[in-house]
Amino acid sequence: QVQLVESGGGLVQAGDSLRLACAASGRTFSNYVMGWFRQAPGKEREFVAALSRRGINTYYADSVKGRFTISRDNAKNTVYLQMNSLNNEDTAIYYCAARDSALVRVAVDLYAYWGQGTQVTVSS
């Protein structure tokens, strides 16, 4: 089992950047595919980005492609989400999640471990 704690959320203006971090503890971090998801008020939780266990393969939702970058540092047991050119539609609670598999997937229900979330609010 792995425990996840997100940090780095906050209130920013449209066009600003923000970097989220997710610290993992418990079992070997490099065994897990890692993902970022988000949930806006009144909406379902949606996929944002994911990357493979060694960080070689990355996947993004179309809505964030070219603006967000997911990365990981297995030595620090941490996954990051660099968010640039933020807009109002990026306002949501952002969750990091772990999947105990070698296969990267984007479906919410395929990730067994979740952090508590961090709020990102973008004002115009």
Low-confidence region ranges: none
Euclidean distance between termini CA atoms: 40 Å
Determine Rg (CA atoms, Å). Answer: 13 Å
Largest sheet: 7 strands, mixed
Topology as a string of helices (H) and strands (E): EEEEEEEEEEE
The helix content, as a percent range, equals under 10%
> In one word, what is the shape?
globular
Number of helices: 0
What value does the average pLDDT take? Answer: 97
Strand residue percentage: over 45%
**Strand tally, please?**
11
Structural class computed from helices and strand pairing: mainly beta
Can you describe this structure?
The protein starts with a strand and ends with a strand. The protein is mostly beta strands and 124 residues long. The strands form two sheets. Strands 2, 4, 5, 6, 9, 10 and 11 form a seven-stranded mixed sheet that branches. Strands 1-3-8-7 form a four-stranded antiparallel sheet, with no helix packed on it. The mean pLDDT is 97.
What is the strand and helix layout of this fold?
Elements: E1 2-7, E2 10-13, E3 18-26, E4 33-39, E5 46-51, E6 58-60, E7 68-73, E8 78-83, E9 92-99, E10 113-114, E11 118-123
Parallel strand pairs: 2-11
Antiparallel strand pairs: 1-3, 3-8, 4-5, 4-9, 5-6, 7-8, 9-10, 9-11
